[in-house]
Structure formats: structure tokens, C-alpha cells
Design a protein that fits this description.
Blueprint: E1 4-5, E2 16-17, E3 31-35, E4 43-48, E5 56-60, E6 71-74, E7 78-82, E8 85-86, E9 91-92, E10 95-100, E11 108-112, E12 121-124, E13 128-136, E14 139-148, E15 156-160, E16 164-166, E17 169-172, E18 176-180, E19 183-185, E20 193-198, E21 206-210, E22 219-222, E23 226-230, E24 244-249, E25 257-261, E26 270-273, E27 277-281, E28 293-298, E29 306-310, E30 319-322
Parallel strand pairs: 1-2
Antiparallel strand pairs: 3-4, 3-30, 4-5, 6-7, 7-10, 8-9, 10-11, 12-13, 13-14, 14-15, 16-19, 17-18, 18-20, 20-21, 22-23, 23-24, 24-25, 26-27, 27-28, 28-29
Amino acid sequence: MGFTISGGISISGGVTLTPPGGGSSQISSISGYLSGGAIGGTGIEKFSFATDGDSVKIANLSNSRNSTYSAGQSSTTNGYVSGGYNPSGGNYVNIIDKFPFTSDNDAADIGDLTTERGYCAGQSSSEDGYTAGGAFSSGHRNTIDKFPFSSDNNASDVGDLSGLHAQIVGQSSSDHGYVSGGKAKPSNANLSKIEKFPFSSNGNSAFVGNLTTARMDGAGQSSNISGYMSGGQQDSPNYAWFNTIDKFPFSSDNNASDVGDLTLARNLCAGNSSSDNGYTSGGMDPGWARVNIIDKFPFVSDSNATDVGDIVYNNDGSTGHQG
């Protein structure tokens, strides 16, 4: 799989870089992965970055979970699924699952977050996975958890977001994790905020810019130089859905710009990143119907997405990875 350069340099062919949110921006990886979801349950799916096409189910999450709205992370060799909501049990979970990229095998429960939560955002450096924010049965979290890729261990609390945020999206550069959008407590307001926190030291996040529109439940992608948020929804009173693809720079702290559209407005979708393209998979459309579309948009130019395949189920609430 190559070695990892913590997260933002895209070299196609063998170097893996960190992941985005929905997952992480695993650059130079060869496949996109989706795990869990409202309909997918414990399933893990995979689709090719090299050719446009449908995903196939290859494995399952651990027996101890059946979660939606988890955070996704990716190392050079494994995908991770942290936190989430268990629909069958009606509870939020703190489980960290790990599954291999080198073979199509089931995930194993390898540790716990510091607190149970869902609707959280995932980030990845070259050495660690991060899970930021989220919701639990009594409210929202601001916790930034970190767990190591080198060993199977529990996460530790290494910082805080600026507020109690859930339904947020994650992205990763080579040296920072990002969260964008979401919903704040106690105001219940939709957020346009973009925040970042360092990988080199444990610390809190800082505000760096705004999305073009306040919204939640989108998908996160990362190129070597930019973070992306695609899709999403505004909560009451208007319940607007978005097909917007926003892009913001990693090299400076600036607002995002609208650089294209998905083929369909949707929320609760999963994000993946190859070295050249961002992918937005599944989700729920403005009619509250689940969809199975895999959209692809280029990093090299600001363009609309194209429909390049289907995931196994019409599904929402799944988690994205790349390896």
C-alpha cells in the first residue's frame, strides 16, 4: 500500500495520505469503502477508484455493533469505524472497529472511545485516528478523541471543539484535522463553521472559515491541498437539501467556495477520496427516500459530479474510508 505521509500530499501510485471525513483522505489508495448504515447494517462494501462501477459487499463490522452515523478513519492498511448509533438497541456506542484493506475480512472490535456518541466526524493523520464531536442520548459532545494506528488501544481525549457540535463533517490535511458544518447545542442552529486542530500536538480546535451555507449531515472529502463538503441539509424551519460541493484551502485559513454540484441533493451521505477525485455515496433525498448513487467529482478542476455507480443498498448513515 505504500507508506503514509500524514494526510495531504497526493501522489498517485503508492503513497498513502491521510483521509477525509466521512472518513479520511487516503490518497493513492485503490478502493473506496462504506461501512454500516441504516439499511447496510453491519455490512462493509468496496468499490474501485480505477474504474467507475458499483460497490460489492466484502465483509461485516464486529458482532458487537450495528451502527449508523459513525466516524470513519483510514491508515495505510486498515479502515476504522468509531462510535455510532445502534438502531436495534436504541443506544449510542463507543466501539472502535478495525478491518483490513489487504483482504476482504470482517472487522474486529479493538478499543473504545472515551465516550459513546454518533453523528461524529473522523480524521486521520499518518499515525492516529481522530473522532471529533457528536451526539449522545442527553445532548452533544465537543470532545476530540485520538487512538493509535500502530496498536489496538482505547482512545484518549486530546482536545475540544469550540462548542457542542454534532452532525458534522471531517476532513484531513497533512498536519491538521478539520470539522465543518453541523448542528450546535443548545441553540439547535445549523453551522457554517470550519474549524481545525493540530496533529502534531494535543489541543483544541480553532475557527478558520465558513462554508458557503450553514448545513449539516453532508459528506467530507480531502485532496492534497483542499477540503470538501458535499451535500447536506438545513434543519427546521425550511428543511432545505443541498447538492452543493464546497471547497476550502488547507494552505490558508479562508472561507469555502461553491465549486460544483452533486447529481442529486442529499444528506446523510458518505465521503471517500482517491488521489484524483472525491466521491459522495448514498444518502437521503429531499423526499426522505434513501438513494444508492455513487457520485464522483474531480480535484484538479472545479466541476460538477457525475454518477459513476451504485452502492449495494439504498442507504443513509454509512461511513466512508479509502485504502
